[in-house]
Design brief:
This protein has 281 residues and is an all-alpha fold. It has one domain: MetI-like fold. Belongs to the binding-protein-dependent transport system permease family. Keywords: Cell membrane, Membrane, Transmembrane, Transmembrane helix, Transport. This is ABC transporter permease.
Length: 281
Amino acid sequence: MLRWPRGVSPLVAAAGLLALTLVLLAVLAPALAPFDPDQQKLLARLRPPLGFERANPAHWFGTDQLGRDLLSRCLYGLRLTLALALFGTLIGLAIGVSLGLVAGLLGGWVDMLVMSIVDIKLSLPFTLVALLVVALAGTDTAVLICVLGIAYWAHFARLVRAQVMALRELPFVEAARAAGATRWHIATVHMLPNIVSPVVVMASLNFSNLILLESALSFLGLGVQPPTATLGSMVGQGRDYMASASWIVAVPAMLIVLVSLAAMLLGDFLRDRFDVRLQER
């Protein structure tokens, strides 16, 4: 007899199923998209989704102001948005974990220098910094990935530093140090395995933040440039048609909400599952 997994609420299960579905849709976008996402059909422009008057059965989600199929553009836009958020998360994680390990293990002036940089980074309104970087360096996809990558590295650095400083005085680390283990060995063998859980939790929570940041930049016209579709750029390009063709904005905006909601719910679940302090309450 099948039993419901212990500690997994129906809401979390639904979030996991939703996340899996969205990832599959993104991965299989070339096979599932009924049309070329950039194909324009001006005679079929501004057609509403199925169920509304003037709807075209071939375009389930309707068409945009250039007659492009919204379903196809949403699938490809979801694919690119998830890829940007994933690479941005990995870059931020690599930078933050590396600096946090160095600051926590070495201490002294190195720790002071790293944490000063972290404090400066956290004190700046990053959306404005991102706008400045993209405006100066251009709107190439590689630039956007780098911008997303440096968005939340400071959060990883502070978390890892705090974890390392708590671990470095424990008996097993002292024993490794007394046995002649190098700092690199201590960091990779004794430190990293013990900080994986909180880092994974923070990465899952920051993933949704990066999706929203990419959407904001694309909405302002500083993200991936047309005709390439991301969910944020689709919302930005359709804002002038909200009164007459609201589906152009509503469909990609709903996808942004679903992706962010699934990522945050899974992040909260991972935090509750792996955070020892929460389990002790």
